[in-house]
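User: Please fill in residues for this 613-position structure.
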């Protein structure tokens, strides 16, 4: 068995109690990249702050009273349950804890025999607890870090206290979303400041001092203003006697240890022979540079800063995509992926979501002021994972089949990533319904889908299963409503999909699943409700659509047909459908027409669902 690897130590489970909106949050992580996604104000930033409180290597703030979980107005944090962050670190059969880890965490090491049947040595794990509570005797809030057992009870051993040696194996580095390049460049405790301090030029000190004197001479000697200024200052000094030494002028510091205080990063502008300091560039460029500085900091200084050869950094990055162009976001994600250690990223970027493994999504929601998190489970309910089982045993018990994984990647991860950030998503058959609803929702509900937190997702026919699978209560528990055509085969297919996914079709019909009138698709429903004259009026309101319709109507096969049949045939042409839906929505709004009853019922249900979120 290996005795430790470059990426050995990583957080396996995080438990957060009583911190801000995290009443009781439990998340299982992978060892690589983990992506926290969801709407604003659902607890993603607080989650990263909690990790920083527990094991942050630097810039570790103390909690304040507002950090304690509270719902009631008269809440008193001094009487509150303590803030607790429990972190579990676990080995695998391929990557065992090193002898050093076992020695340092000796009293805390526990064995999980359930998941490691068939191995000579069971899987080891240990747990660290951070706690903050009000101490009545000291009359202040106090923090504590200690080792706990599998039930999160403090170890009775004398060596239960978490020391810097313990933390040196698992240093957590937190990069918040507000990345101030000026602070990064100027402050000595920043990543850039520490890199500057590591530059050793002590062997060149005398040479540097001579060069500084020469530079002073070049800049100041022989200049009339400089000579007059020097003379005036000496005159004043003789009158006031503020110092026992003569006043002199230096253009450059003679304190060689300050030489690199102004070490800066310059970027050359494209197609211009000019370089500007990084603070003069755009916010996106500054953000990228801060992250690159951090990467350099880890590569160059980690072993000196942490002083542990086995240290594996755990990195929390909040919104790495801030102010960055979409293509640059994709490139930046690859740079983050290359960083040594475990990465935990909060993001609102679909370009980052599309590059992450779907099993590494952690979706955050707020329910009654309390953060709720969810992940796509790898295995079916009640399956207990064990190392050493035959490959087929894992395949047979996977929550998603291979086909479902591919569909989720195709229809959600690569096309509709916004679903993970929505309060409610609406499923419809295709682009025709999507374009219509995008315009009709503001008309009927007086707010745009974006303002309401709605995502409208066309399902390329009837590919509803991947969306409904991950929206299930056992996965992300995302609220959804479906608008479907009313043909018999479509109704039966949707019933089959819902039943197979453990939904109750009869309960959902007309409450979450809305069918257009029997036998009708979208175009037939609109023609049936508005009538031939209004549909022709709509078509002729748009010059391009009118031209297409007249050309179609004058084709030999259509000349003998009545208006309704011609319209039906015209709207059956795929190229005409989306154009018609867009024109119809605009004309309905312009003429203030009423909507079909089924559309109104659907939109009223949308409004009700949003009011209950």
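Assistant: Residues filled in for all 613 positions:
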């Amino acid at each position: 068995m290996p005795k430790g690897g470059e990426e050995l130590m990583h957080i396996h489970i995080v438990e957060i109690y009583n911190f801000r909106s995290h009443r009781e949050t439990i998340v299982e992580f992978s060892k690589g990249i983990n992506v926290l996604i969801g709407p604003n104000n659902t607890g993603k930033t607080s989650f990263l702050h909690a990790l920083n409180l527990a094991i942050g290597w630097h810039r570790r703030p103390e909690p304040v009273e507002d950090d304690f979980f509270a719902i009631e107005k008269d809440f008193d944090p001094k009487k509150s349950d303590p803030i607790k962050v429990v972190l579990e670190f676990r080995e695998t059969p391929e990557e065992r804890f090193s002898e050093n880890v076992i020695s340092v965490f000796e009293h805390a090491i526990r064995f999980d025999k359930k998941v490691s049947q068939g191995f000579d040595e069971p899987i080891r794990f240990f747990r660290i607890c951070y706690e903050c509570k009000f101490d009545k005797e000291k009359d202040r809030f106090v923090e504590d870090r200690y080792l706990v057992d599998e039930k999160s009870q403090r170890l009775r051993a004398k060596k239960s206290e978490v020391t810097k040696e313990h933390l040196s194996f698992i240093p957590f580095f937190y990069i918040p979303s507000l990345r101030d390049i000026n602070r990064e460049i100027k402050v000595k405790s920043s990543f850039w400041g520490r890199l500057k301090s590591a530059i050793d030029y002590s062997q060149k000190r005398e040479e540097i001092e001579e060069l500084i004197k020469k530079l002073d001479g070049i800049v100041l000697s022989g200049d009339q203003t400089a000579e007059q200024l020097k003379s005036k200052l000496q005159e004043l000094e003789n009158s006031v006697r503020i110092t026992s030494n003569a006043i002199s002028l230096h253009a450059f510091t003679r304190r060689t240890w300050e030489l690199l205080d102004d070490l800066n990063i310059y970027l050359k502008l494209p197609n211009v022979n000019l370089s500007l300091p990084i603070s003069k560039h755009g916010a996106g460029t500054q953000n990228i540079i801060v992250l690159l500085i951090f990467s350099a900091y880890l590569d160059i200084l980690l072993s000196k800063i942490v002083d542990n050869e086995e240290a594996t950094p755990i990195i929390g990055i909040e919104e790495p995509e801030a102010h960055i162009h979409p293509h640059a976001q994709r490139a930046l994600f690859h740079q983050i992926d290359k960083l040594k250690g475990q990465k935990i990223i909060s993001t609102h970027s679909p370009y980052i979501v599309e590059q992450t493994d779907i099993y590494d999504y952690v979706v955050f929601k707020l329910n009654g002021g309390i953060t709720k998190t969810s992940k796509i489970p790898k295995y079916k309910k009640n399956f207990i994972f064990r190392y050493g089982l035959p490959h087929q045993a894992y395949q047979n018990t996977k929550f998603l089949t291979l086909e479902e994984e591919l569909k989720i990647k195709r229809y959600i991860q690569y096309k509709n990533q916004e679903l993970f950030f929505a309060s409610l998503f609406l499923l419809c058959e295709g682009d025709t319904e999507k374009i219509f609803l995008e315009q009709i929702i503001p008309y009927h509900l007086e707010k745009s889908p974006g303002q309401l937190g709605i995502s409208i997702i066309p399902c390329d026919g009837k590919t509803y299963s991947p969306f409904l699978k991950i929206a299930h209560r056992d996965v992300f528990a995302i609220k959804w409503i479906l608008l479907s055509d009313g043909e018999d085969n479509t109704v039966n297919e949707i019933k089959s999909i819902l039943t197979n996914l453990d939904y109750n079709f009869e309960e959902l019909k007309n409450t979450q699943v809305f069918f257009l009138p029997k036998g009708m698709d979208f175009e037939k429903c609109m023609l049936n409700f508005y009538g031939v004259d209004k549909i022709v009026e709509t078509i002729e309101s748009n010059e391009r659509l009118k031209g297409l319709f007249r050309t179609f109507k004058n084709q030999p096969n259509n000349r003998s047909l009545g208006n309704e049949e011609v319209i039906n045939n015209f709207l059956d042409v795929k190229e005409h459908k989306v154009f018609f839906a867009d024109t119809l929505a605009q004309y309905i709004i312009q003429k203030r027409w009423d909507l079909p009853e089924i559309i109104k019922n659907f939109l009223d249900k949308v409004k009700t669902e949003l009011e209950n979120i």
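For context: The first strand starts at residue 11 and ends at 19.
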